[in-house]
Predict the 3D structure of the following.
Amino acid sequence: MDAMLHNLNAARYLMGRRVVGRAFFSDDHTYSLACDDTQFLKVDFEQGASAHLFITWAAELAVYDSAKNDREHIDQCFMVTDQGWLFRNEIREGKAVITATRNGLEKDFPVIPFEETFFDRYAKEIKNRDILPADLPDIREAYEDLRILLEN
């Protein structure tokens, strides 16, 4: 589940409810990565909502910057709420957008990019051997994502 944790975390945040089940499939098609190169996760939430998460690098896709782990990949993340809304992460005109659709209605929510992500700050602090800032998400959030995968 190496590459899907950030999508799981986003799904949990957007759904705002407890996970009640999951199904996970993972394959290694290229035999060249430390983790499986293709992963699918379906997460069921309370009240009939679910998230479907998929990512693959199986086609040995382009690497743009190995220092930043910037590479081409296929990444799909969508959620269906108990009220029938479909949420999708999309890129429109080069900008990230969350799109919600239902019964012919569409609402777009722009994703405001961070100047510096929590991961960037964490990596910088580790590299500099500094004390981690108090406002960084702590290991309990990552633990909760992993616990969901292992226990449900």
